[in-house]
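Lab notebook, bench 4. The sequencing result for the construct came back, and we need a structural model before the next group meeting so we can plan mutations. Quick request posted to the team channel:

Model the 3D structure of this chain.
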Amino acid sequence: MSSTSAWEIKLGDSSPLYHQMRSPLRLHLLSTFAADPARAFDAAELSKKAGILVRDIMACLAPMVSEDIIEEVPIRSGRGYRLRNAGDGGLLPAVQRILKDNSQTVERYTIVREKYFAGMIGVDAKMKLVFEMIHTIARSDATVMIVGETGTGKELVASAIHELSPRATKAFFAVNCGTVPETLFESEMFGHEKGAFTGAVSRKLGRFELANEGTLFLDEVGELSLGNQVKLLRVLQEHNFERLGGAQSIKVDVRLIAATNRPLDEMIRTGQFREDLYYRINVFPIHLPSLRERKDDIPILATDFLQKHCHDNQGDPWAKTFTESALVRLQGHRWPGNVRELENAVTRLAFTVTGEKIGVADVERLLNANESEDAHADEKALKLEEVERQHIQAVLRHSRWNIKRAAELLGISRVTLYKKIRAYELQRPEDVATEEG
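Done. Here's the predicted structure in C-alpha cell form:
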C-alpha cells in the first residue's frame, strides 16, 4: 500500500483521528504547520499565534505527536514541532484535505484572532488565560460576565465568544445600558406595539427579539436602575416577555453576555444591584486585566498598532517604527484608558511625527500634552459639577422637594436623583416637607 493511501485511510473522514483533529485549536495548529511544512515552530511561538497557554499547546500537540502527524525536532531554543514527512506527498495532502473540509472553522478562528483579539495580543499569561477561557466557554450557552476597566476590550471579548460559538451564524447585538434612558429601557429591550405610548407610530422589535437564537451583549449592566433590573431578571428566568403595550407572550432563546466596570458585589451591599440578578448573570466570570497589569505587552501592542496604521495609510507596515527608548517610555506610562488610549496615542504619533523613527522625545511631547489636556478637563468638570449642583437645587426648590416631580423635570430617575442629592450634600429646607410624589 502506498504512503499516500495509508495517510488517506488514517486521516479519512470516517476515521476517529479525523474527528479528533477537527477541534478549532488543532485545526489552527495544522493550518500553521501546513502553511510552512518545512519549518519547526517552538511551543512559545505557537502559544503566541494561538493566544493559548503553552501548557495547552503542549496538551494539544501530544496526541498529534503520538499519531505521527507532528514530529519533534531539535532547534536553537530547544524543541521544535513540524509536520512529519511533509515532503513525501502523503501527509501534507491529507492535512490539506482536513483543512479544506473544515475551512469554515479555520476561517472563523482566523477572523476572530485578527478582528477581535487584535487589541489583546501579547505575551502576558493573564491575557492567554483570557483567550483560553473564551475558547472554553464559547462552546456552551452559559451566561458570561466580563469585568474590566473602560478600554480593556470587553465588547471584543463578547464578540469573540459569539463568533466561536454555535450561534455564530445568528445575530449579535450590543447594548450599552449606560446610554439607554431609564424610561426607554423596556421599549429598547422588549419592543413596543403601535400606540403603546405617544410617538409609538408603529410596532418596534426589541433587542431580545432581534437577538433570538443569537447573542445579546449588555455592556455597563451596573448602570441599570433597580426597576429595570427586575424586568431583565424576569426575562432571563422565564425566557419570554411581552412587548410594551402588547398582550402576547413572546418566547426567546438568547445567549446573554454582560459586562461592567463597576464593583457589583459592593453595589449589592449598598442596595444598588439585585443579588438574584447578579447570580443569574455571573455564571462564568472573565476578568480583563488593565494595561498596567500587563506592561510587557505595551511594546508589542504599540508596534502592532503602528504597523496597522502604516499599512492602512501608507501601504508599507514598516514605514514608521519606534525606537527602543520610545517603547520603554510608553511602557512606563499608566494608561488609565487602557488599550483604547494606547491605540489613540499611537495613531496621533503616526500622524504628527515626520520621518521614519518615533523617538522618546516624540512620546514625551504627546504624553505631556495629554496630561495638560486632562488637567484642563478636570478643572472644567469641576465647574460643570457646580452648575449641575445649582440646577438640581433650583429644580428641587421649584418642586418643593417633590422627588418624583423633580426627577421628571430633570429627566432622570428617582434613584439617580437621590444619588445626586447625597453626592452634592443638598439639604431640604426645614419649612418644606419631603414628598415622594
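The radius of gyration is 27 Å.
Will bring this to the meeting.
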